[in-house]
Amino acid sequence: MISRPLLEQLADFDTALLANTIGHIDPTPPEEWYMGGMIQSLTPTLGPTVGIAAICEVDSSTPGGEADIAEFYRQLDEFSRSEVPVVWVAKAVGSRPDHECILGDGMSKQLASVGCIGVITDGGVRDIDGLLTIPFAAYCRGPVIHHCALRIHTAGQAVEIGGIRIQTGDVIHANKEGVIKIPPGCIEQLPERAVAMRAFEHAVHMQLRRTDMDNDDKLKALAELKESHGFGICAD
To answer: How many folded domains does the chain comprise?
Structure first.
């Protein structure tokens, strides 16, 4: 079971650094755990968002019909009992994808009050200034000004958002540069190895920017750093 202290440790790292670290210590193909650039942060000043995924499906764009948000309140009750931060992962399923507006600052305040720290959705979000005051992180396709009747339902299985599959219980790490889910096989060792990756990247970049070394000398220096830190060459 994922502990709060572990998630708090992971919050000390930016998402790209963790992605680089995962690429060196876990065999899971990267295309399975990093989201595409269509999912972007609308609250970039808030820093990393780290929590456990809780999934639902939301139709906020289909015309007509009645609102159905009983499941939202059931999830609020569930989140209030969680011992770790929750990230609300909302799959947009309405008939007009460009009109999906999953939540605003009102629903976000309800979610934040029970330990939910942010939303990840392939729909839209509104009330950005309000989200920042809560604070509540939002990762989505972009801002959308309004919605039709909200219908919120539990997803019975994994959903695809940003080109990867997310299921309940996945560990999410996100910041202004994007969203990843952390493969379970490496999560316990990830904080320690991320510290090493941070030092490794700093040492690598010091060499890459030098003007008094040719490419062969740089490659030799990077090979030595690779051996001393226990990583492959990571220069991005």
So the answer is: 2
